[in-house]
Amino acid sequence: MTTIYRKTSLDGKHKTGIFYCGDCLDDSWKPQPYGEGPKHFTGRWEEAPLDQCDVCYAIDQDSRDEYENWSNDMDRMQWEEDYCSENGELK
């Protein structure tokens, strides 16, 4: 399963538009050829399960499926509540 992360400031107040999957984030810390040093980004990384990696375009499909199932459940519950309130029925 792929985990997607979003870079934020050290205090977490400012979010950037930089998204890396766990593998690409790990690779960014490896030494680079020609002595360029690591390509890491200082700051804090928070999970962003519904976003996409900027490097390899990986997504966290499990989180997306879980979110879609939750959303469908909420829609169904809202429909049931609306239907019951319109017809004077109680659950």
Task: Give me some keywords for this one.
91 residues; alpha+beta; 3-stranded antiparallel beta sheet; 2 helices; 3 strands
Mean pLDDT: 84
Gap between N and C termini: 39 Å
Query: What percentage of amino acids are in beta strands?
Result: 15-25%
Strand order of the largest sheet: 2-1-3
Number of separate strands: 3
The helical percent reads: 25-40%
Q: Would you tell me the structural class of the helices and strands?
A: alpha+beta
Low-confidence stretches: none
Rg: 20 Å
What is the general shape? elongated
Order of helices and strands: EEHEH
Number of domains: 1
For the report, how would you describe the main beta sheet?
3 strands, antiparallel
Number of helices: 2
Short description:
The protein contains 2 helices and 3 strands. It has 91 residues and is α+β, with helices and mostly antiparallel strands.
Task: Give your account of this protein's structure.
With 91 residues, this protein is α+β, with helices and mostly antiparallel strands. It has one domain. Helices cover 36% and strands 18% of the residues. It contains two helices and three strands; from the N terminus they run ββαβα. The protein has a three-stranded antiparallel beta sheet with strand order 2-1-3. β1 (4-8) and β2 form a beta hairpin. The longest helix has 26 residues, at 61-86. The chain is elongated and about 75 Å long. The two termini are 39 Å apart. The mean pLDDT is 84.
